[in-house]
Amino acid sequence: MLCACLLTFFLFGIGNGYIHAAHPKVFKENQVKGVFLYNLIKFVTWPDSEHKVDPFIIGVLGGDSFDYLLRKVVEGEYIGHRKIMVEHYDSSDQVVWSRVDMLFISRGAAPGVDSLSRLAANNNVLTVGEEVGFCRRGGMINLVTRGSRILIEVNIGQIRKSGFRVSAQVLKLARIVKTVSEEN
């Protein structure tokens, strides 16, 4: 039931690059981000995804409470024939890059995003963060909180360089960001 409510919220609560909370007291920031991650899977094409085996893994680096909520959102869900599962990592050393399809990097876990981005790109892992400047440092998608809204940022250069394709529907909602090296 929670998943259905959040899915409805996600589908009808977006506009102008922001995810709007129709009832801010009901939908908390992490719930919105969890539903966004789940839905994002449907709007991204992974490079060479045939080499990945079941299940579809969303890794969460840091952020224990988000990990728990995301498990509730994806419980019993599939993308194609692949069951969606969540794995939690306390540090980047624990990430099994060959298993992970998407890595959510929580606030505070992003200081090494430059090196994480290289590892992710080499292993066809989509990186999603939630920290200001995440995309400028090489992250692919960022969910930045501004008041009661969540701004979607996309580093299209990093995404293309890594071989991913993101739907135009997502790009219309997002603010396009370049990495620092692309700006110079």
TrEMBL record:
Superkingdom of the source species: Bacteria
InterPro entries in the cross-refs: YfiR/HmsC-like
Pfam families registered for this protein in UniProt: DUF4154 (PF13689)
Name of this protein: DUF4154 domain-containing protein
